[in-house]
Amino acid sequence: MAIAAAAANLCRGAGAVSISYSRRTNVHQAFLCPTAARPLLPPFSLRCSAPGAPFLPRLHCTLSADEILISSSPVPPANDASPPSDPVKDAADLLEIRVGQILKAWRHEEAESLYVEEVDVGEAEPRIICSGLVNYIPLEHLQGSKVVVLANLKPRNMRGVKSSGMLMAASDKAHENVELLLPPEDSVPGERIWFGSEDEKDNQPDPASPNQIQKKKIWEQVQPHLKTDESCVAMLGEHRMRTSAGVVMCSSLKNANIS
What we know:
mainly beta, CATH 2.40.50.140, 5-stranded antiparallel sheet, 19 strands, 12% helix
């Protein structure tokens, strides 16, 4: 204990080193102390790193029959610490959610509960998407509307119509009321939507492929965490859903599920 305390008292400077104190092979103590800015006084022997260097190389010092090992410990400054990983946010960043605009919509000929929509998502051709919204949204409300499209799902055959994507909507717990998510009117079809602050727009990773979305069940991981808040803003936990023109909302459903 006295040896360790003496080493700690004599150490000075920036950075941190770990010290393990042993007598022969039995380790008695390990702790952190500042790195030395000058050699320790006798009977210690210590080679120091250059002033201002953040970490020390492996160092040795001795005191009579006791053996002390001082080695570098990678302890970064607190303000450089990386934020903890958020697996749900990481999964959500792999979704390809885009601003869409419905060009045309009609009733599915073979399914009473489905609409079929042609949706501009910024591609060479509009996408065909089927939506189970007949019982919730009048057809005339769809025509020309800006919508939010989950675009990297695998296409599905829905009663003879190949649906390539999903319109995202909010619903109450009883699923009696459903409202489409609405990007700001100034949003541009095709723009990729993200979760987080405004400055996170340019830090989005590439979206996962439809096969990866299905195989890794990425949508299933994210969807339970999507809600609207008290202001009807679409949220992933504490992260707002955004376009360059502003946040994504629904018309009136608060604290509602999003799917």
